[in-house]
TrEMBL record:
Organism in which the protein naturally occurs: Sulfitobacter sediminis
Enoyl reductase (ER) domain location: 16-320
Name of protein: NAD(P)-dependent alcohol dehydrogenase
UniProt xrefs under CDD domains: MDR1
InterPro entries, sorted: ADH-like_N, ER, GroES-like_sf, NAD(P)-bd_dom_sf, YIM1/Zinc_Alcohol_DH_Fams
Length: 332
């Protein structure tokens, strides 16, 4: 068991497959002025983590490190308990239950993390368990696209069963949009339960030929393209995706349509994580937003968690149980 000055963390020192992750005891961080330290109880493993681990696509290494990763502990989501405060922190107190996002520094795959008190961190609504509060990353990405919608507009969400897609259905409905969700047969009931007005089973029906058009088509899993979805778009309609598309086509098309002023293709870049987390906490407290969860792995099983997420078949969120210790030790 880690000593009082150390913590257990899933670490990386090079890009590569999940097998490059190692569990180690590393120094426990101490909060600086204006920071809080959180004892992490739950985190997640998501597509952002798997892409960062592999340093893919290559150009992202300009931010994450060209030859070796700058960040040695991954993990964007966390939920836990504040256990220490730096100087000049008045917003939180020791013992408060919080959840949040670490979009720039990562670090959620560890037993403790420090971050500024004014960063993307909010109180967990009463009665919500830690493993049900680690929901920020997918919802944040979904919000960056669904915020374009206005009441009465129509949107289609392709891949409405993943972490981003399940959040996008709920957030789009909150904005008053009519939502068509595209999922596989086993997720039809889930999409309906999230509020989708229409659900299309892509295994039985070609979703691009349903005879409807939309103000927004959102590829929440990066498995289709603007070229395939053109028949679905109204005049002036927008295609948005969470992936670069075939041959990075979404980037090139987004740049082209941006130059022409039409902005019909976009790869959304989420902004204002602190503001969004506070908004999300309010929605969760009112029962207007809920996370959808696939399965849970212990920290010692993190390699298996990464391998599962890389299959691209998860439903909603894959949770990492960091509070529970088991016989796993040493290399993961």
């Amino acid at each position: 068991m880690a000593g009082s000055d150390t913590m257990r963390a899933a670490t990386i020192d090079r890009y590569g497959p999940p097998g490059t992750i190692r569990l180690r005891d590393v120094p426990k961080p101490n909060p600086g002025a204006g920071e809080v330290r959180v004892r992490v109880c739950a985190g997640t493993v998501n597509r952002t983590d798997t892409a960062t681990l592999r340093g893919h696509p290559f150009f992202v290494r300009a931010m994450t490190g060209l030859l070796r990763p700058k960040m040695h502990i991954l993990g964007m989501d966390f939920a836990g308990v504040i256990d220490a405060l730096g100087a000049d922190v008045a917003r939180f107190t020791v013992g408060e239950r919080v959840f949040g996002l670490l979009p720039e520094r990562f670090g959620g795959h560890a037993e403790y993390v420090c971050l500024p008190a004014d960063a993307a961190i909010a109180r967990i609504p009463d009665g919500l368990a830690f493993d049900k509060a680690a929901v920020g990353e997918g919802a944040w990405y979904a919000h960056s696209t669904t915020k374009r919608l206005e009441a009465g507009q129509r949107c289609l969400i392709y891949g409405a069963s993943g972490a981003i897609g399940t959040a996008a259905v709920q957030l789009a409905k909150m904005r008053g949009a009519q939502v068509t969700a595209v999922v596989g047969e086993r997720h039809i009931a889930l999409a309906h339960s999230l509020g989708a007005d229409r659900v299309v089973n892509y295994e039985a029906e070609e979703f691009t030929a349903i005879g409807e058009t939309f103000d927004l088509v959102f590829d929440a899993v990066g498995k289709t393209s603007w070229f395939a979805c053109r028949p679905l778009l109204k005049k002036g309609g927008i295609f948005a995706a969470t992936d670069l598309g075939p041959y990075w086509s979404n980037i090139f098309l987004g740049a082209w349509f941006g130059l022409t002023g039409s902005r019909r293709v976009g790869v959304p870049f989420p902004e204002d994580a602190p503001g969004f987390l506070r908004e999300l906490a309010g929605l969760m407290a009112k029962g207007r937003f809920r996370g959808v969860f696939d399965r849970c792995y212990r920290l010692s099983e993190i390699v298996e968690a990464f391998r599962y997420v890389e299959k691209g078949q998860k439903t909603g969120i894959v949770v990492l149980d960091i509070a529970s210790r088991d016989a796993g030790s040493g290399s993961a």
